[in-house]
Specification:
The protein has 97 residues and is mainly α. It has a single domain (11-96), classed as Orthogonal Bundle (Protocatechuate 4,5-dioxygenase, Chain A), CATH 1.10.700. 67% of the residues lie in helices and 0% in strands. The protein has seven helices and no strands. The chain has helices at 11-25, 29-35, 37-41, 48-55, 59-64, 69-78, 83-96. α1 packs parallel to α6. The model has no long low-confidence stretch (mean pLDDT 91).
């Protein structure tokens, strides 16, 4: 399976999806992330690009890095990213390709 740019799941995508899942399913993880995003993310073997995408809640970059669409949507809801922002980021990817 691909997201049109890479085979999924790649090792990078696996770790990314693990982070997105744990942020919203493990007690205290979201609080730790909100207190110090870089410190929280340091506990995972992330590439610099993926680390930045998660830290910055860059929806398009998360998708391109291989985020599972369901986990990405749940992350957007959990982080209170407005729907027009998250959907707009994905629509911009379609227009660019």
């Amino acid at each position: 399976m691909t997201n049109w740019l890479q085979n999924i799941p790649s090792p990078e995508a696996f770790v990314l999806n693990k982070v997105l899942f744990e942020l919203h399913h493990k007690p205290d993880d979201l609080e730790s992330y909100l207190i110090d995003k870089d410190a929280y993310l340091a506990g995972f073997a992330l590439t610099d690009r993926t680390h930045a995408a998660i830290r910055d809640n860059d929806v398009a970059a998360l998708y391109l890095a291989g985020a599972n669409p369901y986990l990405l949507r749940a992350h957007c809801i959990g982080m209170k990213i407005p729907e027009h922002v998250s959907v707009g980021a994905l629509k911009a990817l379609v227009k660019a390709n």
